[in-house]
Design goal:
Elements: E1 5-6, H1 25-32, E2 36-40, E3 43-46, H2 48-67, E4 71-72, E5 78-80, H3 81-87, H4 89-92, E6 98-101, E7 107-110, H5 115-125, E8 134-143, E9 158-168, H6 171-192, E10 197-200, E11 210-217, E12 223-227, E13 234-236, E14 256-259, H7 266-273, E15 281-288, E16 291-298, H8 305-312, E17 317-319, E18 347-349, E19 358-365, E20 368-374, E21 383-384, E22 404-418, H9 420-425, E23 428-430, E24 436-438, E25 440-447, H10 448-459, E26 476-480, H11 484-499, E27 504-507, H12 514-524, E28 528-532, E29 540-545, E30 551-555, H13 556-568
Parallel strand pairs: 1-27, 4-8, 16-18, 18-21, 26-27, 26-28
Antiparallel strand pairs: 2-3, 5-7, 6-7, 8-9, 9-25, 10-11, 11-22, 12-13, 12-22, 14-20, 15-16, 15-17, 19-20, 22-25, 23-24, 28-29, 29-30
Amino acid sequence: MVHVQRMSKTMIKTLRDDPADAETASHKLLVRAGYVRRSSAGVWTWLPLGKKVLENVTRVVREEMDAIGGQEVLLPALLPREPYETSGRWTEYGDQLFRLRDRKGADYLLGPTHEEIFTLTVKDQCTSYKDLPVILYQIQTKYRDEARPRSGVLRGREFQMKDSYSFDTTDEGLAESYRLHRAAYARVFARLGLDHRIVSAVSGAMGGSASEEFLAPAAAGEDTFVDCPSCDYAANTEAVTTVVTPADPAGHGPLEEVDTPDTPTIETLAEHLCVPASATLKNLLVKVDGRITAVGVPGDREVDLGKLGEHLAPAVVELVTAEDFAGRPALVRGYVGPQGLPEDVPYLADPRVAPGTAWITGANKPDTHARNVVCGRDFTVDRYVDVVVVEPGDPCPCCGAGLEIGRAIEVGHIFQLGRKYADAFGLDVLGPQGKPVRVTMGSYGIGVSRAVAALAEQTHDAAGLCWPREVAPADVHVVAAGKAVQTELADAVAARLAEAGVRVLLDDRAGVSPGVKFTDAELIGVPTILVVGRRAADGVVELKDRRTGEKEELPVDEAVSRLTKAVRA
């Protein structure tokens, strides 16, 4: 039986003004509408309305996971150090890991994700190929010590997440588990009413052979992605690939050094030689796990350090400092070129630095550059990585059309992990031939609390939140204008709707003006607002669609019937 939720007895405190530290719409509105309150930096309390929305998102996720055969479990959030030492992630996570020590001196962590513990669970429970495939999932609080938690529940230090893991004996089985999750995620976000894109992604420190993200386009998003207007290609900008045809090196003259005093930057060099920046080769020095490494890109492009970090993960990438040049006379600051680099300095390059292309670049001497420096003739590339900042109009790797760039919120990520964790923990089962078979895994996450914020970002308007019915805290927000006849009719209508299975939020607050009630109804964002107003004595109420603003006056019986059918549809 559905019960009427009365605002007079519910802890809902709305605010007229935005929080001083709020920048995004979801942060402002979820606080103002009484859904969440800040407990500390990056840590949030979910109030009654917010908890209902969070639980509705959780319900949809759970239903779709169950539909593909997922089995729900609940693993501890407080985890021992040893499994994460075995996988290497005790160190790889760095400062993002919440670490603690018990009274006996044993090290623990608060779980950011649970690949290690799920692997050990399956190792304990599954011994034969007949026990597989299996999909296990949980919906649980996760923890990451974000350096700069911001944007409300979009980027917190504590958050709700659904993480699931598939275990198969063959690569074909893993591909099928991945396909099931991909389809389930698409259904989840469609049911939530969340506009989303499925894009190629970089696996990074997670490893594996395939990775895709589910992104919700929004101005507040921290991810950038590309869409091709001419084909179905879409990717996180960190995963965009570049296709370049090698050039013919025969047409280039010999390498020639030129005096270029006071030209340590691409801008000063291009101006001095009267050439476009695109004719020059920019060489950025970084440290990869402490080892100095050079990264080459065309002079008119910038190195995306985040992208570089993802490609080289789990290695730590950082810029060199002035101190790193001390005692390294072969590395001339501002005049580094790939030809003649010390043997202990690897050279990475963007694919645009293709074999046969010629460049103007540093000569590894003060105030000197070299022209006609040809890739493959004068220097070699140790590894190609797509590392430039993607720009609008860059060619699509599939069809060549100019790419479009947008911002989005990552709400889901799926990985084909392969045998990384099975190898680390020796996860084998007895195969059909009686011999051990190494298990292969997939890892799949949905940001449950982040999805709430993403929905708020995508669906709000100038007046407040506009929840899709599937996730809204109620189906109907009943507002009584204030007089006794209106209050009595509002009570009666709310009771009839609840009896019919409609979730009702009833604003029965005494001493609150009709104007404040109407403003709060817009702010809270329930899909339908039912106003008992000036025609209450005639048994007529007003229905208002929160999203479109359309209003219609109807007799009570017809209003109840229409709302009941809408909810059951």
